[in-house]
Design a protein that fits this description.
Radius of gyration: 22 Å
Mean pLDDT: 92
Number of strands: 16
CATH superfamily of the largest domain: FAD/NAD(P)-binding domain
CATH topology of the largest domain: FAD/NAD(P)-binding domain
Distance between the termini: 48 Å
Order of helices and strands: EEHEHHEEEEHEEEEHEEHEEEHHH
CATH architecture of the largest domain: 3-Layer(bba) Sandwich
Number of domains: 2
Length: 449
């Protein structure tokens, strides 16, 4: 075990500060600038690897698995107890987009779910999310990916565009990971923002992000079964259908449903913003639950709520190419196309809680389109790739490409590219897109448009 120590002094407020932290004496509601804290600490470099992946959602899993298949030593950092991100922790339990031709990693995931009899009972794309967590875990371990669960990315050290180490923190305390290539699959561009690389967030005019969703789960009961109910005087009970937020009802096995409600107006990249979103999400959950129980007389009891609100948009890293909605709507192909999107432009308005879209509903469908490798390579970094929700695109392009199947394709391509850069000893920018694409297609990804 490598216990070499990394010594760094950091200015707490600077994005580019390496291995730093932030502290503030600012009281709630004050407008003054936060106080800065300067600190120095020795941090052990506990792991050295070829490729480090930050974030274990579907994009992070496929990135890590693909890089490992290419022969790279791979480490994956995940803040929760399981990988899968919104599909597991978020309770989404449904693959959006095409399920064939997404690449060999996704094919293996589907095969695992089928082996467990855990997919396709209610709809072909609906699966048992707790089983998916086990399938992903075993897939990564079989490919010798080093997993760090219950571990958060904290900060990073960068020198002239090259990321050298990241700081993580789990139960062992702060420790460093040294790698040759990094892949940001955090969804919120955590690594890129930590080192000050350019990012995009929200719509151009005001930065407002695509709205979040809270998912909770109900069980059907017979008669007047006892269970939690919204007490009088709590929150704001809904009594008219017109006052409901956008609400979607999904299957969740025998005698159960998953309920998804829209929670707009919060920033997923801000500590106070995501806190407020979680609070509002659970309040709205009970207000909507009460409507279904009291007004519609649904025989539902609350089973549980997702432990993490569903985020559609965090921050996106500016890459060598920014995929635009015009590219998506034109069904554009690229010489370095390494993933394929087909999902419609599912961009809900960020500033209301109804089922309203940014574009007219007759303009939402798109033809198949490609995502170029250049959109997975950070413009400002020499060894940073990205996949999933934080890839380089505009907001409306994201509304299509953010879905799990396309994210899996991006992750596989990013993992292949990172491993190839390690093998060749070159920067990510120096890779030949055609060479990466050739490997992607050889691994069962369908890219034609």
């Amino acid at each position: 075990m490598n216990r070499r120590e990394l010594l760094r002094t950091a200015a707490a407020g600077g994005l580019a500060a390496a291995l730093g932290t932030r502290a503030s004496s600012q009281a709630q509601g004050e407008d003054s600038s936060p106080e800065e804290l300067i600190w120095t600490r020795k941090v052990p470099v506990r792991w050295e690897t070829d490729v480090a992946v930050i974030g274990g959602g579907i994009a992070g899993v496929t990135a890590a698995a693909a890089a490992a298949r290419s022969g790279a030593r791979v480490l994956l950092v995940e803040r929760f107890a399981v990988t899968g991100g919104m599909l597991t922790v978020g309770g989404v339990a449904n693959f959006c987009g095409e399920m064939t031709g997404q690449g060999e990693v996704f094919d293996e995931i589907l095969a695992g779910l089928r082996a467990w009899n855990a997919i396709g009972h209610e709809r072909p794309s609906v699966f048992h999310y707790e089983t998916l967590a086990v399938v992903l875990q075993e897939l990564l371990l079989k490919r010798n990916v080093k997993l760090l669960l219950h571990t958060r990315f904290v900060d990073a050290r960068e020198e002239k565009g090259r990321i050298t180490e990241i700081l993580v923190c789990g139960k062992s305390g702060p420790e460093a990971v040294r790698a040759r290539q990094f892949i940001d699959c955090s969804g919120e561009a955590d690594l890129a923002r930590a080192v000050g690389f350019a990012t995009l967030k929200g719509r151009p005019e005001d930065g407002m992000q695509l709205p979040m969703s809270m998912i909770y789960f109900v069980r059907h009961v017979d008669g007047e079964a006892q269970g939690p109910r919204l007490p009088e005087g709590w929150f704001h009970p809904v009594r008219r259908e017109d006052d409901l937020p956008m609400t979607s009802v999904w299957p969740d096995g025998p005698g159960g449903n998953a309920i998804k409600i829209k929670i707009p107006l919060f920033d997923a990249t801000d500590t106070e913003g995501i806190t407020a979103a979680e609070i509002q999400g659970r309040r709205r959950m009970w207000e909507v639950m009460d409507y279904h129980q009291q007004v519609e007389k649904k025989p539902w009891l609350l089973d549980h709520c997702s432990p993490h609100i569903g985020t559609r948009e965090g921050a996106r890293i500016v890459g060598d190419y920014v995929l635009s909605v015009n590219d998506v709507r034109a069904g554009r192909a690229f010489d370095d196309g390494i993933a394929r999107g087909t999902f419609y432009l599912d961009g809900h308005k960020p500033d209301d809680d109804k089922r309203t879209y940014i574009l007219p509903e007759d303009e939402l469908e798109v033809p198949p389109y490609q995502i170029p490798l250049r959109s997975l390579i950070a413009r400002d970094g020499k060894n940073l790739l990205m996949a999933g929700r934080c890839f380089s695109c505009d907001q409306l392009a994201l509304s299509s490409a953010r879905v799990s199947t396309t994210g899996a394709m991006m992750g596989q391509a990013a993992g292949i590219a990172a491993a190839l850069a390690v093998e060749k000893g070159c920067d990510a920018h120096d890779l030949e897109g055609a060479a990466v694409r050739e490997i992607v297609e050889a691994r069962s990804a369908r890219l034609e448009v």
